[in-house]
Design brief:
Belongs to the mTERF family. It contains 29 helices and no strands. By secondary structure, the protein is mostly helical. α26 runs antiparallel to α29.
Length: about 550
């Protein structure tokens, strides 16, 4: 099941106790009966329910935990007893659809003590659209499902489950199936996608695990199995080995998931006709994955056209592209006539200048303004280029003010930044979520890989929290590990004695000033200051011993 954590998790650290996971596991079977409302037309199933309408259009007062539990119990009983869902499925749906529960509460006008009785009476005469809590519990937007696959809402009992099972039988995990369905609802229509089966077989053949895709799928984008298959077959026909295709997709997941753009196909075709070695092209794509974008391919096609226009032969063009492909891919060029008029020279003179120094093509013909903060030819061109390449992969716009600011915020070479970013993804974070975190808190990548791993290990193995909790609080990774251990240990001691709030958030513990932490955490217990001083001395002792 896909869970999106949009808020900072409450923090409760007790090493000796079991910590219940934030999101319960997906039940083995998700069996949903279609509501049998008495209606003359099937459209009733597809309309937004009254509960959802009220919840969407009117503010709902804050629901107390006591009322929430009662409503969840009534919903569980309704789904299990009245609608015939299994107890396991009914429990999972009722406890993982908070928005729907709030909508039900908005229908009730009784006191909190009467909420269970009022809700049972309401459900007796107002059947609900079970698809709403069902899809919400799985993290799926019903609107998106309806827009792309409205047939799903008319499926008879058991058919939806069989669709999920069909994809599970291909060797996909439940979480992978759900992520695929969220990103591509059309997979639920008709038979199991034969193109998707071919894609999975190709991935297995080149040594990529099926679940690897899950980390790079984004619910905000659309994916087509046909385009994935075309990309695989194209590289195979060009002559790349399975290992090379494996490396291309691993280095640039979007190349597989979003397919190859039309301009990229055209450029690759022309480059091979010019005589460029396919291994040279492969090396460039591996080192600079952004070159496979439509924009870069268009720029390179412009380079080929420009060089042809000034009379350069295929060998000369091939030589220039082989040695300067990455740099040239970043620059759209003016036309040869415009350059000649501007410089007041003939094409033959321009040809001779570029042949002697191919990089003059950029300085003389580039359409880009030579901005000193973004221009690649700075004091340390190779270092800046690597960093710029990495930032372009994160989604920054080329030669923009935003990119210029980002270059100053990130410290280290491009390959070092890439290694630190890969460390985040390898721990289990979604690729797109990791990018959002980095843009919110660039300082995360200004520390070495070992320090990042220590902080993540402490979060998981000592605090007992899932990695997802840093999505809403990415600056956790920016705090010193000593500060984290010291404050968390102190808070755990105080919380265990019930002297402070039992569920203080991780951001509150770490982000507040020392004065506030001492006032609201340390001093709330008579023995707090003594324990605080003891923890500080213990930490200093450990640091002194480790330095020898």
């Amino acid at each position: 099941m896909i869970s999106h954590l949009n808020q900072n998790h409450s923090f409760h650290f007790f090493p000796s106790t079991y910590i219940k996971p934030l999101t319960p596991p997906v039940p083995f079977s998700v069996f949903l009966k279609v509501p049998s409302f008495t209606s003359s037309t099937p459209k009733h199933f597809l309309q937004v329910s009254r509960v959802h309408f009220i919840h969407s259009h009117f503010s709902v007062k804050r629901v107390s935990r006591h009322v929430k539990v009662k409503v969840q119990d009534v919903l569980l009983d309704y789904l299990h007893s009245s609608r015939g869902d299994s107890f396991m499925d009914a429990e999972f749906i009722s406890t993982n659809s908070p928005s729907f529960v709030h909508g039900l509460v908005s229908e009730l006008h009784g006191q909190d003590e009467d909420v269970a009785r009022c809700l049972m009476k309401f459900l007796r005469y107002n059947p609900i659209n079970e698809f709403e809590p069902f899809f919400e519990s799985m993290g799926i937007s019903p609107r998106k499902i309806y827009q792309e696959a409205e047939e799903v809402f008319r499926y008879p009992s058991g058919l939806l489950l069989s669709k999920f099972r069909g994809y599970e039988n291909l060797g996909l995990s439940k979480s992978m199936v759900i992520k695929l369905v969220v990103c591509c609802p059309s997979l639920l229509v008709g038979e199991t996608s034969s193109e998707l089966v071919m894609v999975l077989n190709w991935l297995k053949k080149i040594g990529i695990e099926h679940d690897w895709i899950r980390n790079y799928l984004s619910c905000l984008k659309m994916y087509e199995s046909r385009r994935m298959l075309d990309a695989m077959q194209f590289f195979h026909k060009v002559g790349y080995s399975e290992e090379q295709i494996h490396n291309l997709f691993k280095e640039n997941p979007a190349l597989l998931l979003e397919g190859i753009e039309k301009k990229v196909y055209v450029f690759l075709g022309r480059a091979l006709k010019l005589g460029l070695n396919k291994n040279v092209i492969y090396s460039s794509f591996i080192e600079y994955p952004h070159m496979l974008s439509n924009k870069c391919a268009k720029n390179l096609l412009g380079v080929i056209g420009f060089l042809y226009s000034i009379g350069m032969d295929t060998d000369g063009i091939s030589h220039i592209l082989s040695n300067h492909m990455q740099l040239l891919s970043l620059h759209p060029l003016k036309g040869p006539k415009s350059v000649c008029l501007q410089l007041k020279i003939r094409k033959t003179d321009l040809f001779r200048i570029i042949k002697d120094d191919p990089l003059k093509l950029i300085s003389l013909a580039s359409k880009l303004k030579q901005n000193s903060t973004v221009q690649l030819s700075c004091d340390e061109p190779s270092k800046h280029l690597d960093k710029t390449t990495f930032l372009l992969k994160l989604g920054y716009t080329e030669n923009s003010e935003e990119l210029a600011k980002a270059v100053k915020k990130f410290r280290g070479r491009g390959d070092q930044l890439q290694e630190r970013f890969d460390c985040l993804v390898e721990t289990g974070l979604d690729y797109n979520i990791a990018i959002k975190m980095i843009k919110r808190a660039p300082m995360i990548l200004n520390q070495n890989k070992v320090v990042m791993q220590k902080k993540i290990d402490f979060l998981r193995n000592i605090l007992g929290y899932p990695l997802d909790c840093i999505v809403a609080f990415p600056t956790y990774l920016c705090y010193d590990l000593d500060r984290i251990m010291l404050r968390v240990s102190m808070y755990a001691w105080v919380a265990k004695r019930k002297a402070t709030k039992p569920r203080m958030t991780l951001s509150t513990i770490l982000a507040c000033s020392n004065e506030k932490f001492v006032k609201y955490v340390v001093n709330v217990h008579p023995e707090g200051p003594t324990i605080w001083e003891g923890l500080q001395r213990l930490l200093q002792k450990d640091k002194a011993e480790s330095s020898f």
